[in-house]
Amino acid sequence: MPASASNEMPAADLPPRTEKLAASIRQLCKEYRLSSGSVVALRDVSFDVPEGDFVSIMGPSGSGKSTLLNLLGCLDRPTSGGYFLGTDDVARMSDDQLADVRANRLGFVFQSFNLLPALSVLENIELPLHYSGQLSRTSRQRCERLAQRVGLGDRMDHRPMQLSGGQQQRVAIARSLVNDPRFLLADEPTGNLDTSTTAEILDLLTELNNEGRTILLVTHEPEVADLTRRTVVLRDGGLIYDGPPTGARAALQATAVRATASEVHR
Ligand SMILES: Nc1ncnc2c1ncn2[C@@H]1O[C@H](COP(=O)(O)OP(=O)(O)OP(=O)(O)O)[C@@H](O)[C@H]1O
Ligand SMILES: [Mg+2]
């Protein structure tokens, strides 16, 4: 029995939304086909993300959270279903158009920071501009401002190894902002950080959300989800809850009970 009956409602029956949408997904499915068989990682997931929303995605390991984020980030294509970024139909985009969307409209933050160890803080922030051939004196000044913005104005020449985990994640967040995207996607951005550093990164993300940026973040930590406006819970690739973060705990407990029961039966 799903935790939220409203999620069972077919998309067509949902009330019309009046706010502008940053993203809208409809019956999204992702199946990985391997020589040993296939894995259905996402099944019929539908929800809307209004502009300016701050959404946490939760669920047990293997429930499809990263798969969903990769599809939303145009890093992968769905097997079926629809995905609209604003009013643009992502499914109809060419590979070049998708690359353009990734470079200019989306920002990515990952659990493992993904910084290049040989580059300085400033060079890491500049990296997307380097790849797209957009480096210039003004863009360098913009990157310096971003470094200051995330509190690393006095660390611009440091290498990632010379920074704490929280500082490295702040470099990654500054890098994700280099093209001023309105939509940020973060896969367990605090997964490798201690409690106080986690709070620091969440403050920064909240500030970015308060500026009007839409944020979707994957997390295993209820304390992190509690700081977002809304939580989506996945189980076995399906959406089982979509509502306030406080209500997500019951849905997650149900998934834990179910996992324990299936272990007992094994
Ligand atoms: N490239 C791939 N090829 C085949 N199967 C995959 C691939 N990526 C993910 N899967 C499978 O799809 C399912 C969902 O994986 P996904 O990485 O989205 O889970 P997750 O919820 O992010 O888990 P975690 O919390 O451990 O990060 C898993 O069963 C996984 O093994
Ligand atoms: Mg994952």
UniProtKB/TrEMBL annotation:
Single GO molecular function: ATP binding
UniProt similarity note: Belongs to the ABC transporter superfamily. Macrolide exporter (TC 3.A.1.122) family.
SMART domains in UniProt: AAA (SM00382)
Entry GO terms, CC: membrane protein complex; plasma membrane
Entry keyword Lipoprotein: no
Full protein name: ABC transporter ATP-binding protein
EC number: 3.6.3.-
UniProt keyword terms in alphabetical order: ATP-binding, Hydrolase, Nucleotide-binding, Transport
InterPro entries in the cross-refs: AAA+_ATPase, ABC_transporter-like_ATP-bd, ABC_transporter-like_CS, ABC_transpr_LolD-like, MacB-like_ATP-bd, P-loop_NTPase
Residue span(s) of domain ABC transporter: 23-261
Keyword Mitochondrion set for record: no
